[in-house]
Write a structure and sequence with these properties.
The chain is an all-beta fold. The protein has strands spanning 3-7, 10-14, 24-30, 40-44, 48-51, 59-66, 69-70, 74-77. The chain is built from no helices and 8 strands.
């Protein structure tokens, strides 16, 4: 994971393309850094993903998995007073 930005009710996640060959899976979890019940788990072919419908006052965790290995976990918080437009 490289970074994120939050605007207009969406989060944009970005990462660098690795050197390994094979599919990359993006996992996103809401308030759960252990990813026991991810809210998103999908194979991605790009180096970015947009998450719509963010929940105010929540922390989102995300990571990438490739070849059975997981990246370090990244996170971002949506402010409690965040209003979607």
């Amino acid at each position: 994971p490289e970074g994120y930005s939050v605007s207009s009710g969406r989060a944009s996640l970005e990462w660098n393309k690795g050197t390994r060959i094979g599919p990359v899976t993006l996992e996103v979890s809401l308030d759960d850094p252990s990813f026991s019940k991810p809210i998103l788990k999908r194979v991605v072919t790009s180096t970015s993903q947009t998450l719509p419908d963010l929940k105010p006052g929540k922390t989102y965790y995300w990571r990438l998995i490739q070849g059975g290995d997981a990246s370090p976990v990244a996170s971002f918080e949506v402010p409690a007073n965040y209003v979607q437009f």
